[in-house]
Amino acid sequence: MKEAKTKKDNRIVKKILDEITGIFMPIIGCITGASIIKSVLMILTMLGAVTGEEGLYRIFYAVSDGFFFFLPFVLAMSAAKRWKTDPYISLLIPVTMFYPDILDALEAGGEIKIFGWGLPSAIYHSSVIPVLLAMILLIYVEKLADRILPEAIKGMGKPIICAIIVLPVTFAFLGPLGSWIGSAIASVFLKAYELNRVIAGFVVGALIQPMVSLGAHWSIVPICMNNITKDGYDAILPLVGSAVYGQAGAVFAVALIAKDKERKRTAYQATVAAVLGVTEPALFGVNLPLIRPMIAACIAGAIGGGLIGFAGTLCTSFAFPSILTCVAYLGGGTASFVAFLCSMALGFILGFLLTFVQKKKISEILGEENKADVV
């Protein structure tokens, strides 16, 4: 009985993680691109090459910052595609959330009343959880509308029914609940981080890449975004940096160890992708199947994560760690930023060395132990 319940719970958790992955995966390119644009602008400003008053700066800053400000629109469209709801009806939710009169009143703590009951205040710009909760409700309301409406009036009737049911429930309950959940989760992570930053860095650095292999890493994306929206910074995402470069170092070692040309090419390409912040090719294509490089990368990530935790590095805009986005991690000050860069270098070096010292074993696993060494 207990085993059956455990399996059921595991399926539920896996289903939730699959849905989070399915929603965020299509938009991660835009998230990363917007982050890189913002990072480049920050670098150019620091170097004195541009000022915040210049037209091109303002336009490109609007692109990078605006994407995150209006993230609920993007999430509504992505969720609609994932859950096969009407994408245009789904936009009713963020459109109403972002209407200036509503947005300003709720975020400023002003009172909007429905039937004499004041709506709780909530922050909706750059938010993740409120719009996703509303989209879950929309799935069932849209199905109900499809069942009860005659075909002749379904085109205009369905948006009306969805708006009448979903919007009041969202503003009275789901939106504030989503904001509270996001704040509560962020608070738990931050409390653990404050309790012992080194241990938090060690644990996150060790586990983040196995989480990537399961798709579970997407669960921290809403938390990190919520932290940045709520507090202006996030302390969790920097802990991931050394793990990313641990994968890069490990797969680079495999590229040097391997003798098969196709395998070497795959490993070299995965190395480049990992250095740019994308570890999936290294993880799924090379390191995870060989196990030993994966373990080496996790050890490297743990050690580097502990260093980042000790330094107290913070990021001020959402950007997965890479050489292209590292300027986003200046939030904790110059010393912590330097420590962040050192941790990424340390992750790469340790990942490489811990893998390369197993050259003989890895060659055996690859079935290449009898081939001549390639210089």
Q: TL;DR?
A:
This protein has 375 residues and is mostly helical.
Written account of the structure:
The protein is mainly alpha-helical and 375 residues long. Helix content is 73%, strand content 1%. The protein has a two-stranded antiparallel sheet. A hairpin with a 2-residue loop joins strand 1 (113-114) and strand 2 (117-118). Helix 10 (197-214) crosses helix 12 and helix 12 packs antiparallel against helix 15. It is globular and about 70 Å long. The model is unreliable at 370-375 (pLDDT under 50).
Average pLDDT over all residues: 82
How would you characterize the largest beta sheet? 2 strands, antiparallel
Distance between the termini: 58 Å
Beta percentage is: under 5%
Given the structure, what is the number of helices? Answer: 17
- Derived from helix and strand composition plus strand pairing, the structural class reads mainly alpha
Query: Strand order within the widest sheet?
Result: 1-2
> Which shape, going by the Cα principal axes?
globular
What is the helix content? over 70%
Secondary structure: number of strands: 2
Question: What are the defining features of this structure?
Answer:
two-stranded antiparallel ribbon, 17 helices, single chain, mainly alpha, disordered C terminus, 375 residues
Topology:
Blueprint: H1 2-24, H2 28-46, H3 55-69, H4 71-83, H5 87-90, H6 92-97, H7 100-107, E1 113-114, E2 117-118, H8 129-148, H9 154-195, H10 197-214, H11 220-231, H12 241-257, H13 261-275, H14 280-290, H15 292-311, H16 334-356, H17 359-366
Helix pairs in contact: 1-4, 2-3, 4-8, 8-9, 9-10, 9-11, 10-12, 10-15, 12-13, 12-14, 12-15, 12-16, 13-14, 14-15, 15-16
